[in-house]
Amino acid sequence: MQPDRVFAVICVRSVARSRSFYEALFGRPPDANPMDSLMEWYPNNGGGVQIFQEDERAGRGYATISVPNLDDLVIELQERSVPIDPYGMTFDPFRLAKVVDPDGNQITFAQAVTH
Known about the structure:
Layout lengths: L5 E7 L2 H12 L5 E4 L2 E7 L2 E7 L8 E5 L3 H10 L4 E8 L2 E7 L5 E7 L3
Parallel strand pairs: 1-4, 5-8
Antiparallel strand pairs: 2-3, 3-4, 6-7, 7-8
C-alpha cells in the first residue's frame, strides 16, 4: 500500500459550532468543506485533519500533530485566544502541549527534542 494522504478524524456534535474553534486553531478557514458535516485542513502534503459531525462519537477523539517549534505555536495559539496547556506533558524526546476542543476532543502538539 502506498497511501498519499492520511487523516486524523475528530468527531464533534456540530460542525457549525466547532468551525470558529478550529479556524482559530489552524489560523485559517478549512481547506475543504466537502459536505455540511465535514471540514478538512491539510497542514502538509501527506496528511490532514477532518472535523466530522457525529454526535455518538463526539468528544472522544485524540490527534497528535508534530510541529517544528512548540514555543512559537503556543504563542500563536494564545494570540488567537485558543486555550492551550503549554507544557502539560513531556515524554523524552518530545515536548508536548495540548488543546481541548469544545466537545472534549484532545489535540496534542509534539516537538521532537534533540539532545
